[in-house]
């Protein structure tokens, strides 16, 4: 059974006896989600994600914290902390005031001695720099500037990592569309220093970024130099050390002991294919007793790259066969939605090709060796259908739950279990919610469970009391509505309208959402005719992703506009 919307969790390879870096490196790490939640066909049009096998269908990887970025305070107020990776970045994405050569970028970053009260700034390696990219966004500079940063440029930024097969070049990331490309070290690109390292499962970040594999240092002529004091990737080797052995072979399949992902041993089972055919081939694969194979997302595919090697750019002595020193498809659509991301297994480039082009296919599956609690459901809605009935709906984000637990709070009481439901359930009707419209407040949350535990709770969905005494009157070219607010916990009111009288079969349509405590609304610009209105109160949780509660509808009123 496919584990859709997979949330990878740490799988312990052996018991950790202490918090030394050696012990910490022994565990399987989490790879973050790419951010992509939308699916597209080969022409770039948006399509439903279900069963496409695309990145937006699986959502494989660790969920991003919300908010992902938080501003520093006090001496750190000019910096942002990435709660996903634990890395600290200057808020100003162009702190250096323009572009610099690679060596100038290293010197500038190493020379920051008092920014936000810290003196351990450096140029990020290529894995760290690419971690800023949200693959859902058409322009990452614009998105980052909306997340608390400023002056992030829609261009290439230097990393501290040298290209292994052509050491005159260094890797960079484009902050517009997210590509990884290499350029001559004498070229000039933007600089974004970073500090700190992620602490993952043992600290404040959600994931642990791995090392790049690079261990040597090079000057601008491409010659090997001593690493000490350079600030290069080969000196600092930031990130989680790779386990040894890196890979374990089982028949026709190989497990990556760093990420827990299972790969087909034969990296060229299907030959070069267009993107949609590649998705179909991976989705239909039955291998090693598993049928949940898929095309990896761009983060997963990039995770096998060793930036110290080329042709192929894989760790030393990989156990795979038929690896092509060429481009491999990911399941992630690029900023140009008629194209998809590929990863070059020759030297590690990440770029996009038109989906009608032909690239190679390397199927992957989750491959965790231990069971995990289910992923938390999302999108909880509690809708009052009558004074005694409230219907709950939610999104099932996991295929490995065995049951759902519904919790309810009546009035000021504590939450208690209301109902246990089978796996794959996404709705429940509470027929005992008596007086929910005027007298008794009802709140709900849901969690998914299996034999290994339960997910976190959804945010609570609180059902407000319904508004009362809706009155409608005509005004010039419109209708004026007034009502009585009977609830103290609404987020606002939804106003619905239909053509004709209250008894007409025309559907009601939402025309306006107001703020809390509003008790009047004028619907102007109407043509002459008869209109009917209902309103309801709603509540939205402060915790994201939001849960919602909706009251029953008010009485219906009809207004005739002359």
Structure description:
With 562 residues, the chain is mainly beta. The chain has four domains: 62-236; 247-365, Roll (Mannose-Binding Protein A, Chain A), CATH 3.10.100; 378-460, Immunoglobulins (Immunoglobulin-like, Sandwich); 468-561, Immunoglobulin-like. It is built from eight helices and 33 strands. Strands 18, 19, 22, 28, 29, 31, 32 and 33 form an eight-stranded mixed β-sheet that branches. Strands 20, 21, 23, 24 and 25 form a five-stranded antiparallel β-sheet that branches. Strands 11-12-13-17 form a four-stranded antiparallel β-sheet, with no helix packed on it. The radius of gyration is 27 Å and the shape is elongated. The model is unreliable at 1-27 and 198-203 (pLDDT under 50).
Q: What can be said about this structure in brief?
A:
The chain is mostly beta strands. The termini are far apart.
Q: How much of the polypeptide forms β-strand, as a percent range? A: 25-35%
Uncertain residue ranges: 1-27, 198-203
Please provide the count of β strands.
33
Mean pLDDT, to the nearest integer, reads 91
Number of domains: 4
Shape: elongated
**Cα-atom Rg, whole angstroms?**
27 Å
The structure class reads mainly beta
- Percent helix among the residues? under 10%
User: How many helical stretches?
Assistant: 8
**What does the main sheet amount to?**
8 strands, mixed
Terminal Cα span: 61 Å
List keywords for this structure.
single chain; 562 residues; mainly beta; Mannose-Binding Protein A, Chain A; Immunoglobulin-like; 4 domains; 8-stranded mixed β-sheet; 5-stranded antiparallel β-sheet; 8 helices; 8% helix; 30% strand; elongated; disordered N terminus
């Amino acid at each position: 059974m496919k584990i859709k919307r997979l949330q990878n969790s740490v799988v312990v390879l052996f018991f950790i006896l202490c918090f030394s870096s050696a012990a910490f490196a022994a565990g399987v790490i989490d790879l973050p989600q790419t951010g992509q939640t939308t699916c597209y066909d080969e022409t770039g049009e948006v399509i439903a994600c279900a069963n496409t096998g695309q990145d937006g269908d699986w959502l494989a990887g660790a969920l991003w914290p919300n908010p992902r970025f938080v501003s520093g305070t006090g001496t750190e107020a000019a910096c942002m902390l990435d709660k996903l990776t634990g890395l600290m970045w200057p808020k100003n994405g162009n702190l250096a005031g323009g572009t610099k050569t690679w060596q100038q970028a290293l010197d500038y970053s190493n020379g920051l001695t008092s920014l936000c009260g810290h003196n351990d700034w450096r140029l990020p390696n290529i894995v760290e720099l690419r971690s800023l990219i949200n693959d859902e966004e058409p322009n990452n500079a614009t998105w980052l500037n909306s997340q608390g940063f400023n002056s992030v440029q829609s261009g290439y930024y230097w990393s501290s990592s040298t290209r292994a097969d052509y050491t005159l070049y260094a890797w960079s990331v484009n902050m517009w569309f997210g590509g990884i490309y290499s350029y001559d070290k004498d070229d000039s690109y933007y600089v974004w220093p970073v500090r700190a390292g992620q602490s993952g499962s043992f600290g404040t970040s959600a994931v642990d970024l791995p090392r790049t594999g690079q261990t040597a240092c090079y000057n601008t002529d491409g010659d090997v130099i001593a690493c000490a004091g350079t600030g290069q990737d080969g000196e600092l080797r930031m990130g989680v050390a790779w386990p040894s052995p890196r890979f374990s072979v089982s028949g026709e399949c190989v497990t990556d002991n760093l990420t827990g992902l299972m790969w087909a041993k034969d990296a060229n089972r299907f030959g070069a294919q267009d993107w949609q055919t590649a998705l179909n081939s991976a989705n239909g694969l039955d291998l090693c007793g598993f049928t949940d194979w898929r095309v990896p997302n761009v983060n997963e595919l990039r995770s096998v790259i060793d930036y110290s090697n080329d042709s192929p750019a894989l760790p030393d002595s990989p156990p795979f066969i038929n690896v092509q020193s060429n481009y491999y498809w990911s399941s992630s659509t690029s900023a140009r939605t008629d194209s998809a991301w590929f990863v070059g297994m020759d030297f590690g480039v990440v770029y996009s090709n038109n989906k009608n082009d032909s690239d190679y296919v390397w199927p992957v599956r989750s491959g965790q060796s231990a069971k995990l609690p289910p992923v938390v459901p999302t999108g909880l809605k509690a809708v009052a259908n009558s004074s005694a009935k409230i219907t709950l709906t939610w999104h099932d984000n996991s295929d490995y739950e065995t049951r759902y637990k519904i919790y309810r709070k009546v009035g000021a009481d504590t939450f208690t279990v209301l109902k246990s439901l089978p796996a794959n359930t996404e709705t429940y009707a509470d027929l005992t919610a008596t007086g929910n419209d005027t007298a008794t407040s009802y709140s709900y949350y849901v969690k998914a469970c299996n034999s290994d535990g339960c997910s976190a709770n959804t945010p609570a969905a609180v059902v407000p009391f319904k508004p009362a005494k809706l009155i409608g009157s005509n005004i010039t070219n419109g209708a004026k509505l007034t009502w009585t607010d009977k609830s103290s916990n609404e987020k606002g009111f939804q106003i619905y309208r239909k053509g004709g009288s209250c008894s007409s079969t025309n559907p009601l349509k939402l025309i306006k959402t107001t703020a809390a405590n509003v008790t009047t609304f004028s619907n102007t610009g109407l043509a002459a005719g008869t209109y009917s209105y209902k309103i309801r109160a709603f509540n939205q949780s402060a915790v994201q992703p939001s849960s919602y509660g909706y009251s029953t509808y008010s009485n219906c009123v009809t207004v005739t506009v002359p």
